[in-house]
Specification:
Elements (H helix, E strand, L loop, with lengths): L11 H4 L26 H20 L17 H4 L4 H7 L1 H32 L5 H6 L5 H10 L2 H16 L3 H9 L5 H29 L7 H6 L4
Helix pairs in contact: 2-5, 2-10, 5-8, 5-10, 7-10, 8-10
Length: about 230
């Protein structure tokens, strides 16, 4: 089986990741009437779908402003911040200050997502796919992504919490320091944990968006396995 095609202009860190390989072949299928399409299994097709969706999602997220500029991936302010009064109320009243603070948190998500990317790739490579037919034929355009997210649980959160914690401590945005000083009873770890959960959901929303796009137009991928799996001949 050929490796996943490279996405143009991806960050170098992703060029070392997100590659197809080592997928075992069981119940091999072939695509009738087209000798140019290779034999493949439905499990192969689901993995291919997830590899390409993940690869494209991280290629977008790991760009400058990748989270902030995305309608599906932008991180909201953690609830623990928005529910505070006093100094926090003053900081968050003005939309300019809210946007500055929210953007600072979204910028922190870059390093956290970069750290999380290999774990997603490894999960796609090793995860057991119990019902490939149902995932491929589902009316849910993000079915495979939802399955992957469920199987991975909170593993990405655990990976990203330390990254957010470090980013909060060294942030050069003055508002971040002011917010942390004003949050009585909430430590940096609590904010980092909240941000990691937000980022986890954002990453899988981004992957799901790419999966939906592939399902809508599998021919645009020029990938024979995906084209065959979705009935393109």
């Amino acid at each position: 089986m050929s490796q996943l095609s490279q996405t143009p202009n991806r960050p170098s860190s992703l060029n070392r990741r997100a590659m197809l390989g080592g997928i075992s072949s069981v119940a091999v299928l072939s695509i009738a009437g087209c000798a140019t399409f290779p034999a493949f299994t439905l499990e192969d097709a689901v993995r291919r779908l997830l590899f390409l969706s993940t690869d494209r999602a991280f290629a977008r997220l790991l760009q400058p402003g990748g989270f902030w500029d995305s309608q599906v991936a932008r991180l909201a302010l953690p609830e623990v911040i928005g529910n505070r009064g006093g100094i926090m109320q003053r900081i968050l009243t003005g939309p300019i200050f809210r946007d500055r603070l929210q953007r600072a948190f979204n910028d922190m998500a870059y390093e956290a997502a970069d750290r999380a990317a290999p774990a997603v790739t490894d999960a796609v490579r090793t995860i057991g796919i119990r019902n490939a037919v149902a995932l491929l034929r589902s009316s849910d355009p993000m079915a495979a992504t939802s399955f992957l997210h469920q199987e991975m649980g909170t593993s990405l959160v655990e990976i990203m919490v330390p990254e957010f914690g470090d980013a909060l401590r060294v942030s050069r945005e003055p508002l971040v320091g002011e917010v942390l000083s004003a949050l009585t009873g909430v430590d940096v770890g609590g904010i980092a944990n909240s941000l990691a959960f937000e980022a986890d959901n954002a990453i899988f929303r981004a992957i799901g968006r790419e999966e939906a796009a592939i399902r809508a137009d599998p021919g645009a991928t020029n990938d024979p396995v995906l084209m065959g799996a979705f009935g393109i001949k």
